[in-house]
Amino acid sequence: MKAERNNMTDNNPLYIIQKTENQLIKAIESQLVNKNQTPNIIEAPLSTGFDYGINLTSLASQEGLSPHDLALQIANTIDGAEAVGSFLNFKLNMSEFGHSVVDQILDMKSDYGKENEGNGQRVVIDMSSPNIAKRMSYGHLRSTIIGDALANLHRSAGYEVIRDNHIGDWGTQFGKLIVAIKNWGNEQELLTSDDPIGVLQDLYVKFHSEEETEKGVLREEAKQKIALHSVESITGLKETIETISQEIMTRKKIPKIELDMTKITEDALDRVIVTSLEKEGRNWFLKLEKGNKEARRLWKLCIDLSLKEFNQIYEVLGVNFEESFGESFYEGMLTDVINKVSSSKAGHISNGALVIDMEDKGLGVAIVQKSDGASVYMTRDLACAIYREEEMKADKAIYVVGDDQKQYFEQLFEALTRLDYKIGKNSVHVYFGMVSLPEGKMSTRKGRVILLKDVLNEGFKKAKDVIEKKSPELNKNEALKNEIVRQVAVGSLKWNDLCQDPRKSIIFNWDKALNFDGNSAPYVQYTAVRANSIIETSEIDIISLLKNNVNSKKDYQEASEKALIRQLANFPSAIKDGLDNNSPAKIASYVFELAKRFNSFYGKNRVLGIDDENIASSRLKLVAATSQTIKNSLAILGIEVPLKM
Ligand code: ARG
After folding, report:
1. Among 18, 213, 231, 609, fewest CB within 10 Å belongs to which?
2. pTM assigned to the model
């Protein structure tokens, strides 16, 4: 692929914009005495009538000149340059620049925008990662959508990408779940239910409420015993009170006298009292760990039922994973991790637990092994990161997880670094805020949670209404219509997650997401469909235009044409920007602006049915290049361009 493309250098494709920029920079630098600052050329605001510009303030101060004087001096030496205040502005020869940009796009096709900076590097994207026996939340959906876009973005920069679904399929909760299924569940019902995860979730809630009841009774009994005898009458209570007191005194830096002993005794009681249900749960988890057949069977049942539902959502979204190891995959590696931590300087024992104290960095204390010997979420993540570095040979890892786990990932990366794993420094947490849905509009299950399935179904219904109204002719082709409805609904859902800084909390609203006139997927999709239909109507083979092109000085002289060309030329730098910031939002705002500029171009210029053949074909090429670039941008976001709309 690399050798065949004439626009490629050894490393990256050399894009027309970069070539042009390099020429301008060289011309500017030739006028400077000091060359330690690289001139920063930006697109000139649309209202100025210029194409590009540079603010000379800081370069001028380095030269000991006034910015305007420096601007005048350089302007004299460059064709099309003009000094405006402290700015040096440029007008390009747009017919030449425009044709080069457009030709390059039409020549490179889906490769336009690609970079090679990630060549030879492997990145793991930890994404989606829902928990077994729990419904996928909107947070997991966000992680899936953002993670997939980041994967595409990295792939266009030459990285080898491994999307890894780190499913939550291990932990002591599975012991409890097995007890709940055995005590109150009905396997037949589970297998035939249309909401098996809901049934499992209810069973889990039942376990906790039953356990709370039992605990209440035990607590009262214990209290009476203490009143009659002393704290010593309850095994382990005195020691636990002591432990908790110590913990609080260290944490709050207060003397013993200020401790609230009533509260501490209550908390200690809660730790000491172990209900029979909890014992059963621990027992079943132990069996699960040891490979007991029945425990494994029920655990596997929960996984299968949950994955069936998760996969339906992935299918609708069109998202795939290279790996879905899940937390349980690392089970066999946990002892190793625990040994590594306990034998390194990083780990020590505190209150019987193995911890890594990162207080010196303001990151608190991370538990790696509980005092009862159990592993935790962190233990599995350490094993997983080490596996990714050592076995998967990953150079980089990106975790796409909600902002509630921000401190947790800071701890994880720091812990890895302290254990001498370089993946610690090469990992990033791309976090996102909460999504809320407008109250009352979505159907809920027992008023507690919103079902993702319902959210999707509602979107499909609304998209269908919109499409049927906008394009009634599609009613004749039901299959095509349904395909378009899916593309528009899924596109809208994804756009909503990708069009702004994901760290902000958002309210999701289907009507806004499906608004054809707003900052939405359908607006951009519709623009691409429109461009495609212009090309189709022209019945001209774009490739033939490429080959016998007669560039004329008259081409691309209208302001809206120029603006469109500049935006087309900008795509590679939008990709770079997206990569540097791990932000697909950069691509979304890029393509939204591109669509707006195209629509303004098309509103002002005729493309079809004009007599001047040169102008006609130049404009048609511009339309085709726009269509290609919108398609490439949307592909990164995981959004498809429909055939019709
Ligand atoms: N299953 C977790 C949750 O739902 C997210 C896992 C994120 N990935 C990771 N490597 N910890 O909160």
Report:
1. 609
2. 0.91
